[in-house]
Amino acid sequence: MASAFSAFRVSLSRISPFRDTRFSYPATFALAHTKRIMCSSTHSVSSSPSPSDISSSSSSSPSTFSLMGASENARWRPMCLYYTHGKCTKMDDPAHLEIFNHDCSKELPVAATDLGRKKSQEFNFFLVIDLEGKVEILEFPVLIVDAKTMEVVDLFHRFVRPTKMSEQAINKYIEGKYGEVGVDRVWHDTAIPFKQVVEEFEAWLAEHDLWTKDTDGALNDAAFITCGNWDIKTKIPEQCVVSNINLPPYFTEWINLKDIYLNFYGREARGMVSMMRQCGIKLMGSHHLGIDDTKNITRVVQRMLSEGAVLKITARRSKSNTRNVEFLFKNRIKPMNWPNLGCNRLCAGSSESQTATLCLCSFCQHLLHSPTEEDSHVLENCYVLEFIIFTNSNFRLSGSGLNLITSNYLIDMYCKCREQLIAYKVFDSMPERNVVSWTALMSGHVLNGDLNGSLSLFTEMGRQGIYPNEFTFSTNLKACGLLNALEKGLQIHGFCLKIGFEMMVEVGNSLVDMYSKCGRINEAEKVFRWMVGRSLISWNAMIAGYVHAGYGSRALATFGMMQEAKIKERPDEFTLTSLLKACSSTGMIYAGKQIHGFLVRSGFHCPSSATITGSLVDLYVKCGNLFSARKAFDQIKEKTMISWSSLILGYAQEGDFVEAMGLFKRLQELSSQIDSFVLSSIIGVFADFALLQQGKQMQALVVKLPSGLETSVSNSLVDMYLKCGLVDEAEKCFAEMQLKDVISWTVMITGYGKHGLGKKAVSIFNKMLRHNIEPDEVCYLAVLSACSHSGMIKEGEELFSKLLETQGIKPRVEHYACVVDLLGRAGRLKEAKHLVDTMPIKPNVGIWQTLLSLCRVHGDIELGKEVGKILLRIDGKNPANYVMMSNLYGQAGYWNEQGNARELGSIKGLQKEAGMSWVEIEREVHFFRSGEDSHPLTLVIQETLKEVERRLREELGYVYGLKHELHDIDDESKEENLRAHSEKLAIGLALATGGLNQKGKTIRVFKNLRVCVDCHEFIKGLSKITKIAYVVRDAVRFHSFEDGCCSCGDYCFFIDEQEKVAVVFDVDGYRDTETARYHTAFIIGDDGYFKSVSLGEAPNVYDGKPGHLGYTPQFYCPPLVCSSSYLPSFVSHS
Of these four, 147, 616, 751, 1046, which has the most CB atoms within 10 Å of its CB? Predict the structure, then answer.
């Protein structure tokens, strides 16, 4: 192998542009790492750089471009940036001219010897461009290079002033960007808007006859050169959108120098610095100063032209859709005509070398003409071959004529290159196939996400009479796990047992993984216990399975068993990542710290271990230790999206939204491709806290991303607007979505349900069906819940029947809970209880809580006691259950029983969740807890609430609903308690800061628990007297109050059907018999609708829609409603 590798080095030296691949790079270059010497706004002159800073060159290449600056006479001088903007006032000052350059062509000279090997080009001029600025473009430099002489013709350079940033943000950004190189003052003096830059750039192009509007906007015999595709493909279109201008037509095609470099030298370079280092060219000026980077890229272009490179267009933008860019891969790799003599041996000796791709290119050509049995082993290292096969347009392989082993490797290679169609061509043309051929194709399907395709191939392979091996089973079990296809997995497991593969470790590992992902952790444990010779992968699969199933403690215990088993392999990155996830999911920070210590001792915890360190960040965030999370985050050199997401969400969930948004903007500057999961998660936090302004700010940032709005992000935006109470905005976002999945429709259905718009929810559900989108179990749950909230009994029952008949979806306990709630709200408690007793699955705590709550609403104490006993027996540690029992007794006036329930909960150390509300005022969120007086404006809030109560009493006859204060205390104390409810305090602050005269405005309040009846009536009256709209989101739904009415239609209040109680309202629904001019009596009919009788008029029957018709509010009330004692406080009995 050593001799083969030496032969490779000799062959390489003949064709490589690098005479010695062990070239050195200057470790320090003063002007590239210190402040660039620039003139200030008054053209004050700094000291000249020392010749020693720029004199030495370690490159062995004799090119002018690598020796540039090596001598004292050719000393590099920084460009006068005032001169490039036409604002230099020191042209007559010799000292200034000695220090600063005013002619860029002098920096980039071309010797006659450099033209010897130059080839003719497709264009006469090249425009080298390298933009600066992540958020917006800050610097726009372009150099014209003559393709014939390689000389620099002219320079265009402008600093660009952002249009969407505040002055404070601009100053901070520019200081960080240009302060270190000393040109921040020049930027402030010369920067102009991007629109003006484009206009001046076009005038400059026209001056050089490179562009005119008469040529359809295309360049005249010229082409742009960029170092990467980002500048023209991504940044310029983004900036045009921000600056509200059309994309100039000359930015439709360009040359990516990295592609040409790879094509010409056969060696990949990450960027400009990498190219210069490989070519032995010194970096001059300041890296990431656009004008200096552009000149350095020009020097690489000159070097490549002098050595015979031909520069061709590598990327072209579609004229019909500017987002579509075609990458011309045919220009990426040029086939090399090497002799085939000894090629396979040469590849064998050098396949592990970084430069092996040169030999492998030749091997590909050799393989086309004279393949041998020896050649197949080379394709084992096909990762090096991936980009060659994928991009070389001259390389066309089929299975015909190749031996079985080589064809199998080709299938595997094409699958790993995500070229499944070409892999199929090889597979179809093979005269003979074995199990390896089939398994390689199946692995490709799994790798590329086509899981069902792999399972179909598995079935077809069985029909062909080919028996699977252990890798075939492992591949398809993995597909079953990812698809959650338990039944198919069970069939494959049975097949394994039949032919005796169940004892193989690889198959056992896949079985554990499959059962874990399908939620059958007990079966996974059984397989694991029966496994013989467990490997580290086996233990990892079991630990990960426990984590996936939510059994963090078992995962940690399994790790302890693994340590005791003393297996040969040490815990790896996958083991430790799963353990950290186990700790974070269970909140076991002590165990997490122990694992952290183990990481440090074992050497895993280092900045390069991005996955592990990211899991540490997630652990500390979920355990509330943001200080440690930030410390771990700062240690990561290559931060992953998961680590960014964890920390941003941690700050947001702790209420530090300023830091969260700051981190997101920093992420946006560092990466233009932000993961959709990160965006969705951040927007989701804003939605949960109903932070409308932050949500809108996030939307403004997201729409500027190159990837645009992905479906998952759009879903989060729709959800955010719905949770903030803006149904119209949510509908607008939903309508603008180009691609809607079942989640998109479910989000809208859920939102409509929360807002009491049940008919809209059912309508959009039916529309989804017309679009041939199959609802899943979550979608059915959403529409059933919407029917429940809106009292749509008939529709709800029809949907539930449809769910029972749907193939592939089994109703969960949550679906039954919705039907129980639907029946219970209609007063059909016996039917609801019968459904719970006869349902085919075991009822959970939630369904019993629903039934108990309905018993309280309807005053059915006996059934409530029965349900309460069951609830406390199966979930006696939940404080909510004791609170519900206490409320049941308190509602009926059973104070002794209520006290016993509260005392029992206290003895067990259980505490009720405190009521909390929050309101956003001038982009600041204020939180209130019921009964607390810690807010600095507490006195002002209390005075405001007392003033409002006075007006409510005088104008509407409002009185406190004392019967809803379920404590055995005096009335005055009850009033104080009711006044201190968190939603009232939040509204009080909004009124205190904005005044009572905010007519036409909307105040939005959000609460973690349900709104009580008294607060509901208080806010209704408030909307009447203040003419302000109030939107309150509680734990169940939205209440939109306007002009004395609520969007819920008071559906939570019922009337005794048996007593046929008639209720008298005035025109606006409030009791005011002395001043009312119009009154309407409502009597419940047999059909469940209110029958209204206006005084002196004939009865009318209304359709149950919320709102007003004439002077008569319309309400819907289902049959069998509850006692009249639960009527709203403003209702009078006739």
Answer: 616
**Selected catalytic residue, list 132, 136, 1017, 1057:** 132
Which of 122, 175, 207, 288 is the catalytic position? 288
Q: Measured between alpha carbons, how far is 183 from 35 in angstroms, rounded to an integer?
A: 9
Helix (H) or strand (E) holding 224: strand 222-226
Q: pLDDT per residue over 1033-1058, tens digit each?
A: 887 788 888 888 887 776 544 333 22
Integer Cα distance of 915 and 1011 in angstroms:
9
503: Cβ contacts below 8 Å, ≥ 6 apart: 531, 532
Reply yes or no on domain 34-331 having CATH 3.30.420.10: yes
C-alpha to C-alpha distance for 1018 and 1015, rounded to whole angstroms: 5
- The DSSP call for residue 101 is B
pLDDT at 17 over 70: no
Residues pairing with 226 in the sheet: 256
Contacts of 189 (CB under 8 A, 6+ apart): 41, 82, 87
Which pLDDT score, from 0 to 100, does residue 671 have? 67
- Cβ-proximal residues to 80 (8 Å cutoff; 6+ apart), any chain: 38, 39, 88, 90, 96, 100, 101, 102
CA nearest neighbour of 547 among 619, 611, 476, 491? 619
Is residue 288 annotated as part of the catalytic site, yes or no? Answer: yes
| 1096 torsion bin: left (phi>0), alpha (psi -120 to 50), beta (else) | left
Beta carbons within 10 angstroms of residue 513's beta carbon:
26
All residues at 6 or more sequence positions from 521 whose CB lies less than 8 Å from its CB, including other chains: 515, 545, 546, 549, 551
Residues 562/539, Cβ–Cβ less than 8 Å: yes
Residue positions counted in the chain: 1134
Element holding 949 (H helix, E strand): helix 938-956
**CA dist., res. 92 & res. 183, Å (int):** 22
> Strand pairing partners for 494?
none
CA distances from 880 to 701, 846, 886, 890 (A): 41, 11, 10, 15
In 3D, which of 622, 630, 565, 549 has the Cα closest to residue 592?
Answer: 622
The set of residues, in sequence order, having a beta carbon less than 8 Å from that of 904 and lying 6+ positions away, is 882
Q: Residue 896: pLDDT band by 50, 70, 90 thresholds?
A: low
**Mutual orientation of helices 758-770 and 777-790 as an angle, nearest 10°?**
150
Q: How far apart are CA 369 and CA 716, in angstroms?
A: 55
430 neighbors 401 (Cβ within 8 angstroms) = no
- C-alpha span between 851 and 816 (Å, rounded): 11
User: Which of the two residues, 312 and 871, has the higher pLDDT score?
Assistant: 312
* 39: pLDDT strictly greater than 50: no
Which structure tokens are listed for 392? Answer: 């070389």
List phi, psi (to 5°) of 179: -60, -40
For the record, the structure tokens of 419 come out as: 């070229």
Angle at 74 between CA 68 and CA 78, to 5 degrees: 90
CATH architecture of 913-1048: 3-Layer(aba) Sandwich (3.40)
How many whole angstroms from its chain centre is CA 330? Answer: 34
The residue assigned the tokens 């009596």 is: 1081
CB 802 within 8 A of CB 762: no
Say if CB 281 and CB 66 are below 8 A apart: yes
Contact 134, 669 (CB under 8 A): yes
**More confidently predicted of 784 and 954:** 784
Does residue 976 have an active-site annotation? no
Closest residue by Cα to residue 210 from 131, 144, 151: 144
Name the 3-class secondary structure at 442.
Answer: helix
CB 689 within 8 A of CB 673: no
CA distance 621 to 614: 11
Q: Around Cβ 483, how many Cβ atoms within 10 Å?
A: 17
The Cα 932–Cα 981 span in angstroms is 9
